[in-house]
Amino acid sequence: MSTPPAEQRPVRILQLSDTHLLGGGRWHRDQVDTTAALERVLSHAASLAHVDAIVATGDLSDDGSVESYRTLRRMLEAVAAQWDCPVLATTGNHDDRPVFETVFGPADGVTDIRGLRIVRLSTTVAGRGYGALSGAQLDSLAEQLREPSRRGSMLALHHPPVPARTALLAALELLEPQSLWDRVTGTDLHTVVAGHFHHALVTTVGQVTVAVAPAVANSTDVTAPSDRERAVRGSGYAVIDIAANGIATVLPVRVPAPDDGVELFDLSPAEVARLADEYGLLGAQAALGAQAGPGAQAELGAQAGPAAGPSQ
Ligand SMILES: [Fe+2]
């Protein structure tokens, strides 16, 4: 079989999410050496013959330390060098966006990869577990999508703009996802890639494929009762191929380790309710209702304190 010309070859994205790295040699929840987990994931992914871009969708650091971001950048750039591809990263609820940006540059941005337009938007709301996009971010997205790109567009962000499967994650969703969907209707956006859930999920919203990558740090047990939050050991990543016609093929990859499936935590419904109350959407939705009008989301994003959040 002959090799297809490079232009017909799908654009291949290696997506990593929720690495939750820490500085000072510390471990995630004192249980998982996330730097070692990332090493395992990257050495597994290194066998891919070609990758056109590495996309990292938030919760890259767990503690927001500059050391954690420097470690991540060094590790990602080392593997990206073998494919001569860029690293495109944005921030999640555990990240400290200003510290991230001192190491990686802007968390929002747009990059053309062989005709595929990849837009990154940070959904970080400092001090909270839910995510939000400001009116200015949505305006900028609409502007970037105004003219079609040859291979269409992909949006990379941390909080998936689709419903979560557990009570805790439902409290930590993206605020008002419909405002995002309203702005991309009729554009060439065909794929959204996200993280945050710590489990793979692929669904569609209209014509758009929404793909959530497995986490590097741990795995949410999707078979647990939805009012609990249970996580086990296990790491993965996603390979996303975008064909010349814009069709996305999503390949979630599990990286095997000897202690896979061992329980890390199993939060009771009461603990879930407490975390949802402290970091979740309810207060934000009430405030948004009270403020109403454009810019309300941006104000909500601006008022919170330093990075914090529950497990995911
Ligand atoms: Fe996370």
UniProtKB/TrEMBL annotation:
SUPFAM superfamilies: Metallo-dependent phosphatases. InterPro entries: Calcineurin-like_PHP (IPR004843), CNP_phosphodiesterase-III (IPR050884), Metallo-depent_PP-like (IPR029052). Keywords: Hydrolase, Iron, Metal-binding. It comes from the Bacteria. Transmembrane segments: none annotated. Coiled coil: none annotated. This is Calcineurin-like phosphoesterase domain-containing protein. The lineage of its organism: Bacteria, Bacillati, Actinomycetota, Actinomycetes, Nakamurellales.
